[in-house]
Specification:
The chain has helices at about 5-15, 20-35, 45-65, 70-85, 90-105, 115-135, 145-150. With about 160 residues, the chain is mainly α. The chain has one domain (about 5-150): Globin-like. α2 (about 20-35) crosses α5 and α5 (about 90-105) packs antiparallel against α6 (about 115-135). The chain is globular and about 35 Å long. The two termini are about 25 Å apart. About 30% of the residues are buried.
Length: about 160
């Protein structure tokens, strides 16, 4: 990620914070729409509480973009837990698509193509590290990065 992309993501996240509950609800609605099979991963989960955890995790990552190495161990731990929850490699692409769509809806006209690219880069960095850790935890976990899947049309749609 470039310095400008980091700045854009961090600045735009400040605009997401006031709508974080709505953003989390939008995110999960979109995720389940793009990939209905993901609903089963949250069968015993209070989505309102999970939405709060999601937004907190995004906030931690956004603030750590200046020093991504500081979050590597936490991302690895998170990825290992996600493998145990049944998360598969393909889910990273649908999560990324749902995130970008949520930001597009939540930020409206402020979600410019430049900002979209910045968030996609941030998510790609995050998902690559998590998929690497998942592969270590569960050998055979295939990896294709989020941007590659998005370009190939395998990451869901934003429309």
């Amino acid at each position: 990620m470039t310095r400008d992309q980091i700045r854009l993501v961090q600045a735009s996240f400040r605009n997401v914070l006031p709508i974080r509950e709505q953003a989390a609800a939008l995110f999960y609605d979109r995720l389940f729409e793009i990939d209905p099979g993901t609903r089963g991963l949250f069968a015993d989960t209070d989505l309102r509480s999970q939405g709060g955890k999601l937004m907190a995790a995004i906030g931690i990552v956004v603030h750590a973009l200046d020093a991504p190495e500081s979050m590597v161990e936490k991302l690895k731990e998170l990825a290992r837990r996600h493998v145990n929850y049944g998360v598969e490699n393909r889910h990273y692409a649908t999560v990324g698509a749902a995130l970008l769509w949520t930001l597009q809806v939540g930020l409206g006209e402020a979600f410019t193509p430049e900002l979209r690219d910045a968030w996609a880069s941030a998510y790609n960095m995050l998902s690559e590290r998590m998929m690497e850790a998942a592969r270590e935890a569960a050998p055979g976990h295939a990896t294709t990065n989020f941007l590659g899947q998005l370009a190939e049309g395998r990451a869901g749609t934003l429309g």
